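Re: weekly structure request thread

Next one in the queue (141 aa):
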Amino acid sequence: MGPNGSEPTVGQLVANASKDLSSLVRSELELAKTELKKTAVAAGTGAGMFGAAAFLALLAIILLSIAAAYGITALGLHPAIAFVIVAVLYLLIGAVLVLIGARMLKQAKGPQRAIETSKESVEVLKAIGKGDEEPETSVRR
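Done, posted below.
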C-alpha cells in the first residue's frame, strides 16, 4: 500500500513484478527439468531395446552358424571340417568388408572448399590489416 493507503508505490510494484518473474522462471525451469527427464528415460529405454536386439541377433548368428555346420555335416563331411568351412566363410566375408571399408576411407576427403575459402579469407584479412586493397583471388564468390 502507498502512503495514502489506496495505491501501491513504484517500489512495491517493482518488488511484486520481480517476485512474479522469479516465480515464473522457477516454474519454467521445473517444467524443462520434467520434460528432459521424460525424454532421457525414453531415450535410455530405446537404447536398451536396441542393445537387447543386437545381443539377440548375435546369439541368432551363432546358432545359425552351428546349424550351418551341422547341415554341412549332414552332407557327409566330418564335423570339424564343416565348422572350419563355416569359419572360413565368415573370414572371407570379413576380408571383403575390410577391403570395401578401406576403399571407402581412401575416397573420403576433407572439406576441400572450406579450407580453400578459409585460406582466401585469411589472405584478405591480412591485406586489409596492412592497409592494402582487397587482393585478387582466383575464385570469385
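The chain has a mean pLDDT of 86. The first helix runs from residue 10 to 74.
Next request, please.
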